[in-house]
Description:
Elements: H1 10-16, H2 20-42, H3 47-54, H4 58-62, H5 74-82
Helix pairs in contact: 3-5
Amino acid sequence: MSKENIGSNFDDFLAENAALDEATAVAVKRVIAWQIEQEMKAQNLNKNTGAKKMHTSRSALNRLPDENDTSLTLTALASAAAVPGKKLNVKLLAA
């Protein structure tokens, strides 16, 4: 690590290496998946029930938290959020 990087924050490092957007997207997806999982647990909903409500397979529901699965859409996240009776809310923030 060069001395010029000492004291900079991790976001700056990721931005310099063109990885900030991808890292942010993965983090947001993981947090949403975790929130859905926690809500399902709180309501005693299992993955089989969730998959039936989403009209999909249990394996599709298992892919939700997979950070390597880039095919997950906002529609799939909204559908998963609806299983425990929640809505997905996405908004843009100032950079």
